[in-house]
Amino acid sequence: MSTPAGGNTSLFITGLPFMVSYAELFDGMYNTGKIKHAFINLSHVTGSDNEMYPYTHTAHVIYFTHAAAQKLFDRAAEGNFIVGGKRATVVWNIRYTAEKQAMGRSRALRIRGPLGIVNQDFLEAFWADRMYWGKDRVVHIAQRPDREACILYYFASWDTEALQAGQLLCEAYGNNVIVTYERDLCEDGWSET
Residues 50, 23: contact at Cβ < 8 Å? Predict the structure, then answer.
């Protein structure tokens, strides 16, 4: 059964700049709503010397609610959705996605534990062998003298990235790490970062 058009939470974005990053994409989406899933589509074009030159030009974004998706759609329709200095275009994705209750979940994780585990180099190497993820940004919150650290990871998606990243850490390190969800920077009430 398909989702009624009015309840769609899925958007397709075009007109993105060459090699756009998740941080640039999300910076243009501040104050729209909590993101469930985002993916920047990578394409390739072959140059005259037959080497591959990657470029990015589209993205697929799913919000938890239709109202949030509508905010980004309206922002783009008004010409105010700017990504990496370029005006991006937003259309409703033909693959409708129904609303989903966030229930405290988000694409942002707060990770606290021993400095040997809770540091950017270790975490990214740990996840690299176990999952694919897109990184929006990383915020280093604290490093205490007793060798404990706290870090915020903003992933591109909740459902395929933040959820899995947290589960993998808890399975591997148990009570040595504490993983909780943090507020999404794109939610209402946040300003551009």
Answer: no
The residues near 89 (Cβ < 8 Å, ≥ 6 apart) are 13, 14, 15, 76
Q: How would you write 13-55 as a 3-class SS string?
A: EECCCCCCCHHHHHHCCCCCCCEEEEEEEEEEEECCCCCEEEE
pLDDT digits (tens, 9 = 90+) for 103-147: 889 999 999 999 999 999 999 999 999 999 899 999 999 877 778
- The whole-number pLDDT of residue 53 equals 40
Q: How many angstroms separate the most distant Cα atoms in the chain?
A: 56
- Residue 121 is inside which H or E element, if any? helix 120-128
Nearest to 162 by CA among 117, 127, 192: 127
Q: Is 189 exposed, middle or buried (0-12, 13-18, 19+ CB in 10 A)?
A: exposed
Left (φ > 0), alpha (ψ -120 to 50) or beta: where does 174 sit? Answer: left
Residue 114 backbone phi and psi in degrees, to 5? -60, 140
pLDDT at residue 176 above 80? yes
- For the segment 28-40, the average pLDDT, to the nearest whole number, is 95
Rounded to whole angstroms, how far apart are CA atoms 55 and 58? Answer: 10
Average pLDDT, the chain: 87
109 closest CA partner among 186, 177, 182, 36: 182
Q: What's the pTM?
A: 0.85
